[in-house]
Amino acid sequence: MADQGLSDASMNDFATWAPVLRLLRAEKARELAGKPVRVAGRIGRHGWSLALTRRMPSPGRAAQVEDMQEELDAVERVRCALADAGVDDVSFTAGIAPTGKATLRLLGPSPAVEPGIGTPHPGALILVDGALPEPWRRLPEPFPGAAPAPSADPELLERTLRERLPHAIGATEEEIAAAEARLGVALPDELKALYRVTRARWEDLGGDHEAVMDACTAVGFELFDLDGLYIADAASRYCRWEFAAMEAVTTSPDAMVQGLVGSPGWIAFGDNGGGDRLAVDLTPGPRGHKGQIIMLSHEENVGAELVADSLTDLVLGRLGSEPGGSGQRRPPAVARVNVASLRSVEAAVHPGLEVLSIGVWDDAPLSLAPVVGLPRLRTLTAYPGSLADPLEIAKLTGLEYLELGPQEWRVLLDAGAVPRSLSAAAIRAHSDHDPLPIVAVANEILGLWGRPRIIQTVLEGDLGPLP
Question: 245 near 133, Cβ under 8 Å?
Fold first, then answer.
């Protein structure tokens, strides 16, 4: 529980921020003694980003909380104020005179702006309320010929599990029916057979850890109870816009699993113990089996890997022997042009190109003329200074996501050439770039769509002289 001083802190009170500002000023003063300094950062209820050098522990000693206690105390005061204000995250910048006089600007939040990552700059700007990147809108293709694997055997599965779990409490038919009603889909026969043997409520085991481990060993994974079953659709696989827009969904003609973000036919029922979810796949790929078992990696945003042809195979340890995933991790629909990958825009061109990312570049700026007219191009990101003529972007009429440097955005804004097809956008800038000009550009872009702008709150105060 926060102490009374923390709980009384207000987000819009300079005193709330003063401890953080003093730490940042002290850091800057090492290199700019006697001069005005500008500091910036981001603090959220679940983390923060401040340009502070933390004390290194002595050799042979691990870092301790007390090594950064002053920082923790200063940040916690702000985080408590954010919680009281119902704000998740706010960035800030401050100018501090040598006398200690300071002007602090709080930037945001805005419901149309995702927080930045490790920077005070805004993240993705959501220009259309509720908009999702194309891969998150993609539904599975129907393959009417898909059938259960020959190995699917609910009776064998149930018999095997009863032998392994003789004292387990199974789910009733009413409990299974309630789960189906909640999910809006009928559970496949194998999954019903599994829950008829064990309803997987760990309270049934009386808190016996060894019994819990035995149950996991018997089925081969961590089984969710019926209330924990969920549809692993695209909405269940959250991803920030700037990352999601860089993904592409592809399913090869010989794929066992469709290369989707999620599917209304993926019923997640367990975990491998490392955060990867097991699901029954009722919408398999062209060569897959209805009811096959797939695994959704917590480290991937798209696709899944085939684990077994059936739940019976999974429990009996008969795992798939051939590759059964949903395609390449980086499909050709995504092209990266930079010093370490493709060396020209022309090399990226083909009719299926969906995402073009132009990164760090050490040659003459690039023209976008080769990709004009490509029917599926929906995402363009370009490192600051990498484009020869930003106005060529106006010819890319199918873009839904655009990420550019502030100067490139300035060119488009001044020319009235920002593509109106966009659903989201982002401004890429170096981490030490002053946040205020970035916020100004962001607000201009948001204004074109009538979206809520990033509000600036100005607070003034005195930090006193440096100790």
Answer: yes
The secondary element (H helix, E strand) that includes residue 105 is: strand 101-107
Residue 456 in tokens:
């600036």
Closest CA to 424 of 381, 375, 389, 368: 381
220, 317 contact by CB (below 8 A): yes
pLDDT at res. 249: 93
Encode pLDDT of 21-70 as tens digits: 999 998 887 666 678 899 999 999 888 999 888 766 666 656 566 667 89
Would you tell me how many other CB atoms lie within 10 Å of the CB of residue 86?
8
Answer for the pair 333, 248: CB distance below 8 angstroms, yes or no: yes
- Planar angle of CA 35, 37, 40, nearest 5 degrees: 170
Helix (H, G, I), strand (E, B) or coil at 162: helix
How far is residue 366 from each of residues 205, 353, 362, 378, 417, measured CA to CA in Å?
Answer: 64, 17, 11, 19, 19
Distance CA 22, CA 467 (A): 10
**Exposed e or buried b per residue across 197-206, where buried means at least 16 C-beta atoms within 10 angstroms of its C-beta:** bbbbeeeebe
**What is the rounded (10 degree) CA torsion for 413, 415, 421, 423?**
0
User: Which amino acid is located at 98 in the chain?
Assistant: P
Residue 334 DSSP code? E
Q: CA-to-CA distance for 90 and 83, rounded, in angstroms? A: 11
Question: What average pLDDT does this structure show over 301-330?
Answer: 79
Q: Across the strands, what pairs with 230? A: 268
Which run of H or E residues covers position 136?
helix 134-137
Residue 330 CA to residue 397 CA, distance in Å, equals 24
The three-class DSSP label of residue 454 is coil
Nearest Cα neighbor of 132 from 251, 248, 234, 266 is: 234
Cα distances (angstroms) measured from residue 161 to each of 150, 155, 164, 318, 389: 19, 10, 5, 15, 66
Structural element, H or E, at residue 292: strand 292-296
Query: How many C-beta atoms lie closer than 10 Å to residue 30's C-beta?
Result: 8
The arithmetic mean of pLDDT across residues 343-367, rounded, is 94
Predicted confidence band of residue 2 (pLDDT cuts 50, 70, 90): very low
pLDDT digits (tens, 9 = 90+) for 184-226: 999 999 999 999 999 988 787 776 777 778 788 888 899 999 9
Q: Measured between alpha carbons, how far is residue 410 from residues 405, 416, 417, 440, 441 in Å?
A: 9, 10, 10, 10, 7
E-state strands within 27-161 = 37-44, 47-50, 89-96, 101-107, 125-126
State the Cα–Cα distance between residues 318 and 244, nearest whole angstrom.
34
